[in-house]
Every structure is written in structure tokens, then in C-alpha cells.
Write a structure and sequence with these properties.
By secondary structure, the chain is α/β, with parallel strands linked by helices. It is 39% helix and 18% strand.
């Protein structure tokens, strides 16, 4: 019901900022003040749990609000501006020569409840902007919700149950909304390598500061 109400509100109400609620003007997810508050992370990549990762912004403030709206407030349309930020800022050597975009998978039961996988929506939008192929080759079993769990619990549990459902491409760019502990990205990279992928890196819209 909350997701349905959010979608109806997006149709009948003026555009509003997903962080502070102010009027944004047509086509904007954040108001000017909240856009200015985003902490952009620049072009540097990091290594998280052994996976090379680039993220557009720090997972805090307005960026956290956008990710949570995409995941929990029934706003799949936010995948496009998040993908736009990735396409605009990601280092060129990550986007070429032509890796396949592989969205981080979601347990089937959770995807049915939500109605979509936010990582797949971002990857699809990123593919439209970059011309890169989308390859949904990973599957994931049931996993505990990470919201409200301690860091050690998240590190231990969040990456489990990932496997390649079919042969993956040789060069892969994993796509997700946010990187926190990095355990899920590491599990996806391990599953891809076991199935024959030679090169794995990752991009996300946001990353927890300090990762």
C-alpha cells in the first residue's frame, strides 16, 4: 500500500524533493539545495572486499533519501537519475571496452513484494545511456534484511546465496544502488569468477563514507 500511494502521489501531486519535500520543478528528484548538499566522490576507485568499485556520491543526506525512495517508497523512476550520475562520472576505463552490465540480484520473494529489483532498473537505465549490454546472469537465495542490523551481522550475512544462473560474460561491471559493507558485491564477484568471468568491477550510485 505505501508503494501504491507513492506512485499515485507522483501522478497527481507537483514534483517534490525526495529529501526535504520542497517543490523541485518538473523532472528533478531533488531541490537545488539538496542537490548542492550531495557529496560527490570524484573519479577515484576504491577496493572494497577485494572488488574494484566506483561510486558517484557518499551514502548520506539527500543521496540516502533517493536510494531509500527507490527501494522502499515505490519510486522506480528514480533509477534513471541515479544511472545518469553513474554514466556522467564513472571512469572511462570501467565503462570500456564494453563490459556487460550485471545487476546485483535480489531474492525472488523480496522482488515479488517490491515489484522490481532496483539494481536491475539502474543497470537498464545505465545501459540506455552507455550502450552497454545488460546481462542478468546472477541469482540470489533468501537473505535477511540489512536495515537495522549491526556491521558484523551485515558482513557475515549480506552476501550469501549468490550464484550464476547461466554462463556470465567474460568482462562484467556489477551495478547496484549502494555499497555499504561490500559483502554482497564480493559474493557476486566470487560467483561470477567461479562461473568463468575473467574481469569484475562494480559501480554504485552511493557508497558508505570510509569504504
Amino acid at each position: 500500500m505505501p508503494a501504491l500511494l507513492a506512485r499515485l502521489a507522483a501522478v497527481v501531486a507537483p514534483p517534490f524533493c525526495w529529501d526535504c519535500g520542497a517543490d523541485t520543478g518538473r523532472g528533478e528528484a531533488l531541490c537545488p539545495g539538496c542537490r548542492h548538499a550531495l557529496r560527490w566522490l570524484g573519479g577515484d576507485v576504491v577496493r572494497v572486499q577485494g572488488v574494484i568499485l566506483w561510486s558517484a556520491v557518499a551514502y548520506e543526506g539527500p543521496a540516502r533519501s533517493l536510494v531509500r525512495a527507490l527501494k522502499y517508497r515505490g519510486a522506480p523512476g528514480l533509477a534513471d537519475p541515479l544511472a545518469a550520475a553513474i554514466a556522467a562520472g564513472a571512469p572511462r576505463d570501467l565503462l570500456g571496452p564494453s563490459p556487460a552490465l550485471v545487476p546485483v540480484p535480489m531474492p525472488a520473494a523480496r522482488r515479488r513484494r517490491r515489484g522490481y529489483n532496483q539494481a536491475e532498473r539502474i543497470a537498464t537505465a545505465l545501459g540506455r545511456r552507455t550502450g552497454l549490454e545488460l546481462a542478468e546472469c546472477l541469482e540470489r537465495g533468501a537473505a535477511p534484511r540489512q536495515v537495522g542490523r549491526g556491521r558484523q551481522q551485515r558482513l557475515h550475512d549480506s552476501g550469501g546465496g549468490v550464484r550464476a544462473g547461466r554462463a556470465p560474460p567474460r568482462r562484467v561491471l556489477l551495478v547496484d544502488d549502494v555499497a555499504t559493507t561490500g559483502a554482497t558485491l564480493a559474493a557476486c564477484a566470487a560467483a561470477l569468477r567461479r562461473a568463468g568471468t575473467g574481469s569484475v568491477a562494480a559501480v554504485t550510485y552511493a557508497r558508505t563514507p570510509g569504504r
